[in-house]
Design goal:
Strand content: under 5%
Number of helices: 10
Radius of gyration: 29 Å
Oligomer: single chain
Largest sheet: none
Shape: elongated
Length: 261
């Protein structure tokens, strides 16, 4: 690995992300200001700008000359700049939103189950049990069904990656899956639990706890153990070979071989 190359790439990546976040911030602030503004005169200015844009574009095509060309470029520059800034920010916006939706989806499912249980009062669960269910379910599902979750987000998310031809050009699915793949998700989960276990172990040796309720520490610890067992089960399942058809074939061979003898 070329450390110098990766360092430069990291720097440029951070610059792109920071600029994109700034663009997103000002765009959202501008939209919020327009929505909250009681003065709707900006609509007439915007319509006037669009009419001027269309008019000068038509005049330039009808009577091509340098003056109309410069006027047309000058008038279309704000729109071109806005489109460029929006296009520049889309990859960062898409990546951040997809990561957020992925995390939200994995946590929302166990939360929905817990809220359903509370509503119908099936089983009386403690806070630490709820925490255990959320963490265990979210981590296991994010590793086992990450592809299905991402496909759901692509299909019904704000960017409609799989349906919109304009969005397909940005290849947001490839960008997202480079960050959110099974190995990276697994690494993030293990890293998070590792950091927590360091803090938990230190607090435990100090006769203290991370949470106000000590049982919640145990819930996180038990959740990690369950995820560890589940993850090893997934990895070892690839080596597990027991096909019913092959077993049936071998049993028939065993029976018929005995009859032949």
């Amino acid at each position: 690995m070329n450390i110098k190359k990766e360092s430069k790439s990291t720097l440029f990546l951070l610059i792109i992300i920071v600029i994109s976040l700034i663009i997103m911030f000002f765009l959202s602030m501008g939209m919020e200001h327009l929505n909250n503004s009681k003065n709707y005169s900006w609509i007439f200015y915007f319509l006037g700008y669009v009419v001027s844009l269309i008019l000068f574009s038509w005049l330039h095509k009808k009577f091509p000359n340098k003056i109309l060309e410069y006027l047309n470029i000058g008038i279309s520059f704000p729109l071109a700049l806005a489109l460029f800034l929006f296009q520049f920010a889309i990859p960062t916006m898409g990546l951040i939103l997809h990561i957020f939706l992925f995390g939200l989806f994995t946590i929302a499912l166990p939360l929905l189950l817990i809220r359903t249980n509370e509503y119908f009062d099936y089983v009386n669960l403690t806070e630490q049990t709820n925490l255990f269910i959320i963490l265990t379910f979210a981590t296991c599902v994010s590793v086992a069904f990450y592809k299905q979750i991402l496909n759901f987000i692509y299909q019904f998310g704000p960017f409609r990656v799989k349906n919109s031809e304009k969005m397909k050009k940005f290849k947001l699915d490839e960008l997202t899956e480079y960050v959110l793949n099974k190995e990276n998700i697994r690494f993030i989960i293990y890293s998070s639990f590792f950091i927590y276990l360091i803090v938990f172990s230190f607090q435990f040796l100090q006769n203290s706890s991370v949470f106000e309720i000590a049982e919640k520490d145990r819930a996180v610890y038990q959740s990690f153990l369950c995820f560890l067992a589940f993850d090893r089960l997934l990895l070892n399942s690839k080596r597990f070979i027991l096909m019913p058809s092959e077993l049936l074939k071998r049993m028939i061979n065993s029976i018929t071989q005995n009859e032949k003898e």
